[in-house]
Amino acid sequence: MSLREACESGKFVVTAEVAPGKGTDVEHLLKDAAIIKDRVDAINVTDLQSSVMRLGSMAFCHLLTDMGIDPVFQVTCRDRNCLALQSDLLSAWALGIRNVLALTGDHPKLGDHPTARPVFELDSVTLLDVIGKLNSGVDMVGNELKGAPDLFPGAVVNPGADNEAAMDLQIMKMEKKIEAGAKFFQTQGVYDLDAFEKFMKRIEGFKAKVFGGIILLKSVGMARFMNKNVAGVFVPEPLIQEIKDAEDKVQASMNIAVRLVKGMKDLCDGVHMMTLGWESKIPGILDEVGL
Amino acid sequence: MIVAERKPMEEILAEIEDFQKILVLGCKGCTTVCCSGGPKEVETLSTLIRMDRKQKGKEVETLEASTELQCEPESVKPMLENLANQYDVVLSMACGAGVQTVAKLFPDQRVFPALNTNFTGMAEEHGVWTEACLACGDCILGKTAGICPVTRCAKGLLNGACGGASEGKCEVSKDRPCAWQEIYHGLKRLNLLHYLKEKPQVKAWPIHPGKVVREDLRQEKAT
């Protein structure tokens, strides 16, 4: 079943995420993908995440399609102008890629080429609008296409925005993304189910599927790093303590993920598992939850 | 104003090392206001050049002058014509437009920049300036509570915040406010938050180099 079919079927969707590395070595990523292939509905492939130069999302998405996996092509507006973005969307379709996640993208300043010139000619909203136009058979200036894609567009939302202005801006942008055609949303990592429930209440009636973000807590250091440096991610102190006190830290991390996924089953339409190299833990977590 | 900063002394000294008679040419416009290239800074730079040459035992003559506006040919041409033969290089303390105006008017003359031009900006406090206008040619400040997202958002986003801000600060630097959160607060104060819900837009970027032609003024001069 494709991601689109999974969304339309009304089932609780599970997506995962892999991140190509710096260089051409993809063997371990393909192994990780093979382990979770039959347990997830789709696998996202990140687009130079954190603005670090790496192997590209489109190429790795294509390798996943070869394995019979439905990939989600993550596309940021950081590195390409509107010509390159549209061309890459058509190219992706020609390579068998069916889902796109439209992102604005991090600023290059955050990555390993900090003085690289950023583009941001389009943003997540206008990129979604362009995907809709391509799907309808024209490019963004109205020229007719000979052969149109039928990409399934999604976007992201951050339910943990840290003040009223940031949260209102998130919600307004989410509405704009839905108007521009986003069919599903994958959220930033969630650790506080009560706060997530409030967020879900606030967007009640929005016509798009929402997959709650699960980031596996690989260590206490990682939790503290995210609290300090990742916008909208907040790991509550009791969870950090739980990892700290555990003898088997991997198991503790999985236990936390299991509780979060279980909680989300009643709150939203699916989960997006960001396991940062621990893709092999996904089947165990899903077994526990009964997915 | 155009905000500029003086280049490192070593770089300036290296630029002019082969010249003996140096015209240090300030500008009484923007670079005077941002304290980087007005008559006062001309005097200081000339002194530093003479001290350096004295230390090195090399002769130098510095000539100090400041144009009203170095980007205006009318302000530059007569002054440099009057000083003809008194200098063999111009060290300009104007912005890039000033340096280029001198170079264009006197193509046989060497001209060096003493400043790095940073941006079009405004004074935040004494000694602090921030970039305010990218001169994009299509001003939307009336819709954004007088805060320019093209310039003041690090990504130049037009359709709302990127979500990367933390505690109201931009993801590129904790010393910069998130422009979109500032716009949000500004519009909220004006009871205009609905502006944020308007149709998304894609910016039509101007083709560089820009050119403005005012036919009315050209005809006025012709008659």
Please give a structural write-up.
The complex is a heterodimer of chains A (291) and B (223). Chain A is of the alpha/beta class and 291 residues long. In chain A, 42% of the residues lie in helices and 15% in strands. Chain A has one domain: TIM Barrel (Alpha-Beta Barrel). Chain A is globular. With 223 residues, chain B is of the alpha/beta class. Chain B folds into two domains: 2-119, Rossmann fold; 136-223, no CATH class. Helices cover 32% and strands 19% of the residues of chain B. A four-stranded parallel beta sheet of chain B has the order 3-2-4-5, sandwiched between helices. The radius of gyration of chain B is 22 Å and the shape is globular.
Summarize the structure.
The complex is a heterodimer of chains A (291) and B (223). Chain A has 291 residues and is α/β, with parallel strands linked by helices. Chain A has helices at residues 3-9, 27-36, 57-66, 82-94, 124-135, 164-179, 193-202, 220-229, 237-245, 249-265, 282-289; strands at 13-18, 42-45, 71-76, 99-103, 152-157, 184-189, 209-215, 270-274.
Could you describe the largest sheet of chain B, including whether it forms a barrel? 4 strands, parallel
Number of domains of chain B: 2
Summarize the biggest pleated sheet of chain A.
Answer: 8 strands, parallel, barrel
Look at the structure and name the CATH superfamily of the largest domain in chain B: Response regulator
- For the record, give the distance between the C-alpha atoms at the N and C termini of chain A, rounded to a whole number: 15 Å
Query: Could you name the CATH class of chain A?
Result: Alpha Beta
Write down the overall mean pLDDT of chain A. 96
What share of the residues of chain B does DSSP label as strand, in percent?
15-25%
Biggest interface and which pair forms it?
Answer: A-B, 36 and 32 residues
Main-sheet strand order of chain A equals 1-2-3-4-5-6-7-8
Determine the N-to-C terminus distance of chain B: 33 Å
- The main sheet of chain B orders its strands as 3-2-4-5
Mean pLDDT of chain B: 96
Number of strands of chain A: 8
Low-confidence stretches of chain B: none
Could you state the order of secondary-structure elements of chain B as H and E? EHEHHEHEHEEEHHH
Per DSSP E runs of 2 or more residues, the count of β-strands of chain B stands at: 7
Helix amount of chain A:
40-55%
